[in-house]
Amino acid sequence: MLSKDIAEAIKDGIKVRVIAGEALGTKSPIYTRTPTMYLDFTLKPIPISWNAFVYVLEGEGIFGNTKSSPTSAHHVLLLGTGDGLEVWNKSSKPLRFVLIGGEPLGEPVVQFGPFVMNTQEEIDQTTDDFENYVNGFEKARHWRSETGISLDY
């Protein structure tokens, strides 16, 4: 098989060459007796001036290099300037994560509990809104965290 004959799928800035198996709705023309998945992914680069992070949604993966400790669901990995991203899933369960990046705004950041705003006044207003169930927090009265973490102020 020639390189030009390998099936490809492109979606949302991700290109996958499907050498064996199936991905993004594209199936390889190669038949293997034993079910096999051989995928070659290409991800557009995140601009070097952007900040980026990975958030693990499900499963457990190894990010960075094979000697890194596994990262499990609900954990964040901050990427530095120019960092690449290598990922291994050595478990028997699927690994699901998001890669998020953006151009820094250069604005001040004030954080209190789960709230992140630009000024202490905005944090105070948001805390008031949350405690009074207004301005988008109307359903907060009956919300309960699935993580078991409480927001005690």
TrEMBL record:
SUPFAM superfamilies: RmlC-like cupins. Signal peptide: none annotated. CDD domains: cupin_pirin_C (cd02247). Residues 45-133 form the Pirin C-terminal domain. It comes from the Eukaryota. It holds the Pfam family Pirin_C. InterPro entries: Pirin (IPR012093), Pirin_C_dom (IPR008778), RmlC-like_jellyroll (IPR014710), RmlC_Cupin_sf (IPR011051). PANTHER family: OS09G0484800 PROTEIN, PIRIN-RELATED. This is Pirin C-terminal domain-containing protein. It comes from Fagus sylvatica (Beechnut).
